[in-house]
């Protein structure tokens, strides 16, 4: 143990190596949510530079140490449980701003940079990252990319991987790799930016990213419509087929609507963000659509809607992994409202939100006593609607009983081959990803 510590301290310094038995309960807790056993964990390591991280991974590769990468540990409880790991490596100290090209609408920063810090910096120049991750006050850029974590804003701005212009990462053998912006060519024929997005740290540890940014909108308003499912479905189809340009359209289950004091029926949240005149006109048109269909409607101006969206985020993710099960779901957008209605029939008091443009959403099942057969029924429901259900967070004993990912596609062999090429000894986040990869 002392010899291992000495090797690591020679790389990152004494302050960058923390023995497991010296960590506080607060420091240990998020790590313990990612693995059923901590007996093999020896050290939590904080590299200060990409080069130090590469040296630590080279050492891990030479000694066959299994590694759990993380940023600020805000989403370690997501995804599959990792096999016994020896090191936890945090990118928290890789938090430097490399470049902000205001005129080119790009920003380059290290992976451990906090999302909230980046937004504050960009806001000073009238810009923002068009990503709305869970735990925005703690999430790092690397963690957001590794978990493909964005929510309502994907309706207008698409997914996380569409924001990435360049990326750097460390492979399991300690090699530093770059792809995309500021690089002449890609590596090994792979689109590395897409491969690393949502890979949960199984292919490499991200060190730096270049992201596309956008001008801050001049104004913002949100319209809330509620009513019977058939009428909501008609309204949703109208918005999707119209010339309106909402930033986000969310379908909320009746339980979520009630919890937010928005009514007792299924609902739609439609957000508009652009110049003031356009926002006002589009919000008025949305209210007309709702009125024509007999829906109840509310208009939230900018001063109130920020609170509304924050409350929605907290309602869906402000639960302990020991007290609730949170799933990521996906269905065909045309099936979203029908699926939401069926979910509520199968799982009483569940809360669900679906991002209408993509069909991706979140489902919260209150109470840790949810049975595994309930997950199977809900998964079948989503799969029959052309989608999927994966468990993001749940108590460890529950995750041990089920297939967290529930992958039903035909690309598992290909994913395993890619994993083998990038991490032949399965040192990075072992078994955390689909199919035990």
UniProtKB/TrEMBL annotation:
Q: Which residues form a coiled coil?
A: none
Keyword hit for Flavoprotein:
yes
Looking up InterPro entries in the UniProt record yields: FAD-bd_PCMH, FAD-bd_PCMH-like_sf, FAD-bd_PCMH_sub2, FAD-linked_Oxase-like_C, Oxid_FAD_bind_N
Residue span(s) of domain FAD-binding PCMH-type = 36-216
Which Gene3D superfamilies has this protein been placed in? 3.30.465.10
Q: Does the keyword Chloroplast apply?
A: no
MF term (GO), any:
catalytic activity
Q: Which UniProt keywords apply?
A: FAD, Flavoprotein
**Pfam families the record matches:** FAD_binding_4
* PANTHER family, alphabetized: D-LACTATE DEHYDROGENASE (PTHR11748), GLYCOLATE OXIDASE SUBUNIT GLCE (PTHR11748:SF103)
Protein's UniProt name: FAD-binding oxidoreductase
